Amino acid sequence: MRIIIYTGKGGVGKTSMAAATACRIAKSGKKVLVMSTDQAHSLGDSFDVKVGKEPTQITDRLYALEIDSVYESERSWGSIKGYFKELLTLKGGSGIEVEELLVFPGLEELFSMFKILDVYESGEYDTLIVDCAPTGETLQLLKYPERLSGLIRKILPIKKKGVKTVGPVVEKLAKIPMPEEGVFDDIEYLLDKMMRLQELLLNKDVVSLRVVTTPEKIVISEARRNFTCLYLFHYNVDAVIVNHIYPDAAMEGYFSKWIKLQEDGLREIRESFSEVPKFYVELQKKELRTPEMLSEMGEVIFGETDPDEVLFRQEIYTVDKENTCLRIYLPFAEKDEMELRQQGREVLVGVKNERRCFPIPEEFDEMEIAGAGFEEGYLKIRFA
User: Fold this and answer.
1) What separation in angstroms does the CA of 336 have from each of 136, 351, 358?
2) Interatomic CA distance for residues 270 and 277, integer angstroms
C-alpha cells in the first residue's frame, strides 16, 4: 500500500492537487481513499459531494473521507479520559468547562493521524492520499508521535511502579483516586500505536510527502522551510507541485508586471528544488469541483508519470566511519539560524524553531563534536 501526503501553505491548492492525484490513480484501476486531516475541510467541496467521517464512494474505485477529530478523540481516549474527568470533578460538578479542560493541545490532531495507521493496517485500499492542514499544523502533526512517545516511554514505568507501591496510601490520605490498571493499559496501547505510526511515516517505501507551492516569493520561502523541516525529521519529499501558474495570455495588459515576478519565482523553484521532480500546473479557466474535472487535472499534472510511484528518494542520515562524521541532509538551512550541541549520547540539531535529536553511533561512543560544516546540502558533523 502507498501513502502520499500533501502539504503546503494555506491557499496553494493542496486539496485540489490531492483530489486530482487520487482520481488519476483510481483511474488506473487501483482502489484509492483520499482523506482530509484539515479542520476546515474542503474535500467534499472539491468533489461536489457530501463527505463525512466514514469513507464515501466517489467513483467505482475512489473513496473520500473527512476526519472528525472529536470523533477520533473519543474513540482513542478510553479509560484515560475517564480518569482525568474523575480527578477534575472531584471537588465540583461536571460542566462543559470540564470537557474543555480535557482537550489537550495536539491530542485531537494526533488521533487524526491514527486514522492513517488504521487505514494502512486494514489493507482495504491500494493507495491512501492525505490532504493535510497548512504547513505549520502539518509539521506539528508529524512531530507529535515521536515527541510524545518519547516522553511517555520515560515516565510510564516510574508512574506505574509508584501507583502500585504508594498509591493506596496517597489515595487514603489525600482522598485522590489512583488510576486503575486499565488506565496504564490504555496508555501503553496509545504508546504502541504511536510507535507503529512513527515507524510507518518513516517508511520511505510506503510514505511520500509532496509539497504544493505557487510561484510567489513568500510561498516559495515557506515551501523551502517546510522542505528543510521535513528532512530534519527524516520524511521523504518526493515531488514539488507548482500550482496557479498564470498562462502567458493572462499576463497581458494590467497584469504585465507579473510576468517577471512569476519568471523569477519559477527560476527560484527550479534552482531550490533542482533534484526533486517538479510538476507545473497552470491556473485553470474553471473551478475544479467535480470528479471528472479532477480526473482531467490529474492527467495534466503528471502526464506519463505514475503518481503512485515513489518519485524521488534522498539519503537523509549517513554515518561516515572512515572520517568519523555524521551527514544529515538539511537543504536550505542557513548557518546563522542553526543550533548544534551534544547532549549525552545524542546530537541536538535546531533549524530556527525546530529541533531534533539524533543518536550518536556506537562507533563514536567516546568522542565529542569536534566541528561542523555544510557540504552540498548536508550538515557534516565531525567527531574526535
Assistant:
1) 22, 9, 20
2) 10
Q: What is the mean pLDDT of residues 25-39?
A: 93
Q: How far is CA 312 from the centre of its chain?
A: 18
pLDDT of 169: 43
> What is the DSSP code string of 307-345?
TTS-------EEEETTTTEEEEE-TT--GGGEEEEEETT
- Boundary residue ending a domain (284, 313, 342): 313
**Exposed, middle or buried, 139 (CB in 10 Å: 0-12/13-18/19+)?**
buried
What's the pLDDT tens digit per position in 245-296?
998 877 777 778 888 899 999 999 998 888 899 999 998 888 888 999 999 9
Residues 324 and 249 in one domain: no
Q: What span, in angstroms and rounded, lies between the C-alpha atoms of 20 and 294?
A: 5
Q: Which grid cell sits at 44?
A: 467534499
Q: Which of 119, 112, 117 is nearest to 70 (CA)?
A: 112
- The number of folded domains in the chain is 2
